[in-house]
Amino acid sequence: MGTGRLEAFSDGVIAVIITIMVLELKPPEQPTFAALLPLWPTALSYAVSYLFIAIVWLNHHHLLRFAEYPTPRLIWINFAHLFMVSLVPFSTAWVARTRLAAVPVFVYATVFVLVELAYVPFERHALAQAKGKEISPRTRRFATVRALVALGTFVIAMLVSLKLPLWGFGLTCCAVLLYLRPEPPGTGR
Amino acid sequence: MGTGRLEAFSDGVIAVIITIMVLELKPPEQPTFAALLPLWPTALSYAVSYLFIAIVWLNHHHLLRFAEYPTPRLIWINFAHLFMVSLVPFSTAWVARTRLAAVPVFVYATVFVLVELAYVPFERHALAQAKGKEISPRTRRFATVRALVALGTFVIAMLVSLKLPLWGFGLTCCAVLLYLRPEPPGTGR
Amino acid sequence: MGTGRLEAFSDGVIAVIITIMVLELKPPEQPTFAALLPLWPTALSYAVSYLFIAIVWLNHHHLLRFAEYPTPRLIWINFAHLFMVSLVPFSTAWVARTRLAAVPVFVYATVFVLVELAYVPFERHALAQAKGKEISPRTRRFATVRALVALGTFVIAMLVSLKLPLWGFGLTCCAVLLYLRPEPPGTGR
Amino acid sequence: MGTGRLEAFSDGVIAVIITIMVLELKPPEQPTFAALLPLWPTALSYAVSYLFIAIVWLNHHHLLRFAEYPTPRLIWINFAHLFMVSLVPFSTAWVARTRLAAVPVFVYATVFVLVELAYVPFERHALAQAKGKEISPRTRRFATVRALVALGTFVIAMLVSLKLPLWGFGLTCCAVLLYLRPEPPGTGR
Question: ∠ CA B50-B52-B53 to the nearest 5 degrees?
Fold first, then answer.
């Protein structure tokens, strides 16, 4: 009775979410390069959100290695996490259609605040199940500090985006990139 | 020859169903907070139905642990169960678009009556395969009583919703929440 | 190096196909029972096609138990089989929208001829990998006869549907139902 | 800690991509054979792209057998590969709607250049993990030569398609077909 099915279900949901977004990328009517140009905000935001959901999966995959048993609590935190992630295609499409307008970027950053708020207890719960020796205190400290920094940056990005949406979007990207490597720097492999 | 593929297929179907619903949440044209407001019935019903399908998965996951062999009967009951669940996005979208009108809420409750009607034999069949000692008589009694109470509540919700749709919707929610924990209260993890 | 990934991929494709069809079932504008009525051809054809794809999965699941190694040939036949199955939502939607008109029912039956034409070598190849004793000559004979009867019925259904679409649709249903139980009658479980 | 989840996730993404394309195939309004005719470019390009993504999966499945551990690098190359593959439905739809016009075919070939550019490091990295004896030098040389030939052909197809789109499309097909069998010719199963 391992976490196999929890992983398989989460993989299914994340796979559908990541590919649903590409449906927004509709081919233009005219067969010209000029007709492709207006697609750039959609293409850019698809690429960015794809990267973000890839990072979500990478960390999910990394953390679930430590969990040994799918406790009800882990299942529910996971559902909350996936729910927040499922809002990414919506906010991505809005940002793309309005070409990075203030309110949509604010909502985009808000969704990542929510994703992070669900991710923090997920990380905590998964690491709590790991045997002591597997995870060094340094790694635990790194996880806590990173979560606080990311959360803070997402909240600042929300506020900034109302005045300077491009800067808010950039800040959101920076905070997500903190999770590019699940482990602390200098860890083997 | 375990139930691995039955689980994997069911996970795939439920993952697609749960993420299809978010497609109803279409970003507004205007980049303003005011433009977000009319989305609240869609957002609310998405959140509620997401929770319900999460509960369906949780119980499905819990029950299939007891089944050891995918008998044709279990496979067919499972297909019937998934069919009923696949109607949830349809009824959710109707409830959202008509902002909780009487007939759509009636249909919403009806879909849950059907989900429950397929779930009862599924639960019976899965528990029947479990070895006697694993499942206490108390747990079996709890399952029967809960199924009857839930079914009764869904039917009452159907009738009530024709006059008082908001109450009907609330009753449906209450009945679903009976399944928030698969096991009887007081059972150790 | 078993057939695990071949199964997982096929499960994914079939899960998406079976749930894509429900997207055709769009909630009506009006919140009345009368507004539900015009949906019956869509609802009926969804139910029928769901049943058919469930039968496809059941037989796929049954057969792959015998295959021990995913030979290139098995993989390609499987892809051809899934391709034909992926046309079912298209023909289902056409039958539903035209309310069982002659040509769409003809196409619907044709798709099942194609599904069957890809299923026959799939069955042959999977059974060929099974060890002799596992599969009795009676079972092999049953498989051959059933395939011929089903194929013949699908072709007759094609021709009939051009004059009598309802009869053609009924014949298609009968032929599919031959696969309701993967094993020959009288076989233990 | 094998590559199981990486495979499962990739299977999910490829399964969704391959079935999303069939959504482009919309049933006509009229229930006549004549109404089916204008669908041929969509149907043809669906069949071709289905074949191509099947080939992508076949090679992905073949290569991941050699990888023993999901290194961060392998995961990221895999995400890049899947991203490029996820653009195939977009370019397929554009080619179909414009009936093989010059610029869409150019974009179609470009997407395959990108798929190949992500596939080459994926192949390298997966084979690097395989133990020396499993993979002969001949197989490694074959992989390198094939990758170069395919890449060259895709680039030529891009250039050709601007003047002669049909030839460009044909060249793209030829290059993809180089991967029809993952192993070098003459290799025993």
Answer: 65
